[in-house]
Structures
1.
Amino acid sequence: MAQSTLAPASAPSDDKRWRQVDVRMRRLGYRPDGLIEVLHTTQEVFGYLDDDALAYVGESLGVPPSKVYGVATFYSHFTLKPQGEHTCVVCTGTACYINGASGLLAEVGRTLGVKEGATTPDGKVSVLKARCLGACSLAPAVVIDGEVHGKVTPPQLKTLLEAL
Ligand code: FES
């Protein structure tokens, strides 16, 4: 059967956060002029934009990679994937905030000595925060190197970070 021209490309992974991006693209009718809104949603759910995300969004909306990168790098609002060897994304969405996200950010600061948005001086870990990781039932949630950890306590987070 012929594929519809509106059929999206395959998501880069089976990470369920892609569903939020897909829903946004569908609502916008996969229109190329929805690029900024979709990048915004993608960054909201992942905390930053990496190459796979930019390629997927571009392909799904029919926008050439150059334009996607152009937009993603032009607006200071967008954060491209940080350069640290590892990434730690702390969710600060409502559910996570209520369940102790600020304690987790404080623990990150104590353990790594850096704040959200920064990379440790040795280039090992980049710390980011996201508004909602789509795992609210696991609040407070943290994603370390793409793996979601739920109901995380500061001591558990310390252990996870020290193991990187
Ligand atoms: S608010 Fe943190 S996962 Fe939704």
Note: Strands lie at 86-91, 125-130, 142-144, 147-149.
2.
Amino acid sequence: MVKAQNEIKDTLKLIDIVVEVLDARIPVSSSNPNIHELTKGKQRIIVLNKSDLADKENLEVWIKKFEKEGYTCISTNANISENISNIIEKIKIIGKKIYNQKYLDKSVKIKPIYRVLIVGIPNVGKSTIINKIAGKEVANVGNKPGVTLKKQWIRVADNIDILDTPGLLWPRISDNDAGLKLALTGNIKQEILDVEELACEGLKMLLNVPKYSSMLISKYKLDDSSLNLDTYELLELIGKKRGCLVSGGKVDMVRTSKIFLDDLKSGKIGNISLE
Ligand SMILES: Nc1nc2c(ncn2[C@@H]2O[C@H](COP(=O)(O)OP(=O)(O)O)[C@@H](O)[C@H]2O)c(=O)[nH]1
Ligand SMILES: [Mg+2]
């Protein structure tokens, strides 16, 4: 973590604008606790990615909140390039402001190049966003950060340079609630908790929101009264409905948990935000 932090600090010396990528379903838990300190003095654009999986109402609330705090905030679905051009536009606007301030003396005539670093915790979609901005495959998607020999700038839209290697930030791993949400959205390995326990925690979060409870009912063809069960019994019922049985008619709870967790993180239950 110290190494990653120092690396970002070094890289930031070269950067005008930081694009911080968050998971739209958990904008707090997917942020880095030291981001303010790390990016002090830099202009920051907040991107809420995986908007296709998030609850649209929550998304609107978060965008308004970040904008009120003075950030430029954009929601994206990087997989289909949705709103990617918006990021480029915002970089140009912010970049222009920075350069106008830097060169108040208008007699200095240089062609401004805005240098951009994409940062975020693992798996939020940094590489996908870089590739979509670049318009070609320059960063590995879904892979562990590779061994990059030399960082390369990619020229975009004539006056933007983005670094081909994103800045890797560490998640809020010491915070239990954040760890849970990161696991439930697939941002960190789900093995951090016993799989049945994680599924029960996930169910509990959904049951707290009437809208999400209704999604559970229609997804697994439950009836309203099943929402009164405790979470373990509810999970068992879901297993029964899905035919997840072992010999003797008992429910295979591990397999049921995995199915539920996969449905949840991939949006198959519906658009769900945990924050
Ligand atoms: N549903 C959805 N998946 C995405 C989106 N952006 C990226 N992904 C997926 O998230 C996974 C991690 O993406 P990647 O770009 O490698 O993340 P990185 O670790 O931050 O560089 C990949 O499977 C991507 O296809 C998005 O907007 N929506
Ligand atoms: Mg990557």
Note: The chain is about 40% helix and 15% strand.
3.
Amino acid sequence: MSAVKPVDTCVVGSGASGSVVAATLAAAGQSVVILESGRPTRPSHIPTIRDDWEQHLRDFFPPSNGADRVHYDADCDPRFRVSRFKGVGGSTMHYEGFYPRMHPGDLKRRSQLGMAADWPLDYDELAPYYDRVESRLGVSGALDNPFEPPRPPYPNPPIAMSCAVQRAKAGCDRLGLHAAHAPVAILSRADGARGPCNFCGGCWFGCMHGAISNAQQTYLADAASHGAELRIASSAVRILLARDGRRVTGVEYLDADGALHNQDARNVVLCGNAIETPRLLLMSTRHDHPDGLANSSGLVGRYFSAHVQAKVTAVFDDRVDGYKGPNINGQVQDFWDHDDARSFAGGYVIALRNAELGPYYLYRQRLARPTLFGAELLETLTDTFGHTANISAYGEHFATENDRVDLHPEIKDTLGLPVPRIRIRHGDNEAAMHEHMGGILTSIMEAAGGRQIRFESDRSILGTHLMGTCRMGTDPDQSVVDADGRTHDIGNLLIADGSLFPTSTPSNPTLTIQAMALRIAERLIARDRG
Ligand SMILES: Cc1cc2nc3c(=O)[nH]c(=O)nc-3n(C[C@H](O)[C@H](O)[C@H](O)COP(=O)(O)OP(=O)(O)OC[C@H]3O[C@@H](n4cnc5c(N)ncnc54)[C@H](O)[C@@H]3O)c2cc1C
Ligand code: SF4
């Protein structure tokens, strides 16, 4: 094992949260190393630069060496499957960039409903961090959503609603729902070498115009410009503890050749996401920490949360070109805030989408059957491609202690490490919410004039928004970290990723993850100085 030059802070993970933490600490003059198990995305990895891009979607993903496996417990709901991106920039390299802020009540479910937990901070404390993250990412949006808390204008004007989104909006208008522009981390105006969105579509697989504000081209670029070192293909395998067991001294990691190194650091900030962060803590056992680090509460890995999801597709007689434009560029927040009159607790958001991709995707997803070929296939494709649109909803999951990530006792990955074992189930509240979503989405499509309306319910537990597992709180018996991201047990071991969410909140989490990461990094700097 080799020891590497010590630094002020070692950040594990270069995604949404890790990039913000590294950029903020490095700009304040700290020496920072980011350990990232994946590799960078190059323009040549973006499949949409090719004519036959639909055949090459898999090329976008970093090659898997089996070290990214998860195991689903026999008791895990089969409607849940993880989707994440393990490369430089983390899952922001594959995201849709829908960037709503939370509402004040989302953070206070225990006080409001007697359910779940309160966040240990208020909306007003988060708001200034929302402003700054939105500004750095150049979030585009409009002040046309009547449900959003008061806020300053968006840094960039809204991205115009596409044809498909305007069609869905017309359905919302007829029902009296308030369809508005979606706030998105996508440029509507050029920024240096990065171009504005040109509506080409396929944003999940990278943006050849640089319009999507992923971590690689925003905060990670800032971190590098302030001297932070990004060490790729470097997988953290254990957090190192001082002899007295009261502070951490660094991180042990494996490089691409399988060699083991120690990165010594004054502080360690975990940003590996809500599956890998608890996994690393649980792997870091020692005789005086037999249950892993920061786990005196026994809650590391518990309260794993994943949103309720519903999706409805429809076919329209005239063209709506649902494959053009950013994946999401309209939203409806009428059902966001909790309402006692509904049959479920919590709330959800509706996303108006352009996510139909190309004709091959349509064929594989919706049309493929053994008897469909020749003239009938051509006619079906002509009738549906460019005529299909979809809308979806994401909503709150009230996780229980039994929703969890732990280590599989036997199965190991290719690095010889225990694979994360996942168990998540949605309960009656989530089922009632899902049914409500299906009814509303279906009525929107009917009011918009769609036919062949289909409510897809096979993936009703969303695998892309991963939260909980190291939840934040004031009580060390009921939470893993405090409001500054510091683990209750070990003051110089911090967590800044989606794992610290005490509740899932109703909507897409990444703006909140980054706002929290910025706050955590600045509180760490203040403490270090003070
Ligand atoms: C298809 C898709 C669409 C999405 N769309 C949206 C959206 O529209 N809006 C929204 O708000 N959110 C969206 N998300 C979710 C969003 O991407 C995540 O919420 C966010 O990236 C999570 O941030 P994070 O910092 O917790 O983890 P990540 O961004 O996933 O970063 C974790 C990083 O840590 C690295 N890592 C993990 N373990 C180790 C280790 N042991 N050693 C070294 N490195 C390690 C990983 O390789 C990864 O790069 C989407 C996600 C997906 C997959
Ligand atoms: S639609 Fe816009 S954000 Fe999406 S890939 Fe094209 S230019 Fe980029």
Note: The CA atoms of residues 236 and 253 lie 4 Å apart.
4.
Amino acid sequence: MRILIDLDNVLVDFQSGIDACSDDIKADRAARKRRGLTEDWDEVEGIFALMQPMPGAIEAYQELTKRHDVFIVSTAPWENPSAWSDKLIWVKTHLDKFADKRLILTHHKYLIAGDILIDDRRKRGAGAFKGYHIHFGTDACPDWETALQLVYDVM
Ligand SMILES: [Mg+2]
């Protein structure tokens, strides 16, 4: 099977990037919020380089790549060019040596053909994906142990 896996809040722990930001950046984001603006953490330069893997994500990725055709499908923010390179560096740092050739950055995930998409959101085309969507981070799939079981159930 071809399995597509999202990065943020699926393989990547987005909150760990926020936690690792400097106090100056945290103060700047808090000031935005006080002004009624969104915090837009994904637009902080370099934040994606600070993020750690989700619990069990690396082991699950390795397990899936043994038996399946796995691609990483993620959206990078248009107002933060560092996110594009940081996502590539993250994949090269945390996943196997073949993973970077399997990284697809797109705002239109439904264009990518696959049997299963593991994604925490329905946005960026995930909701229109033609295969089976495992909705990561929900009650139905709260963690990677459950996600692997759901993949086996589909097989
Ligand atoms: Mg995500």
Note: The pocket of magnesium ion is lined by residues 6, 8-10, 119-121 (CB under 6 Å).
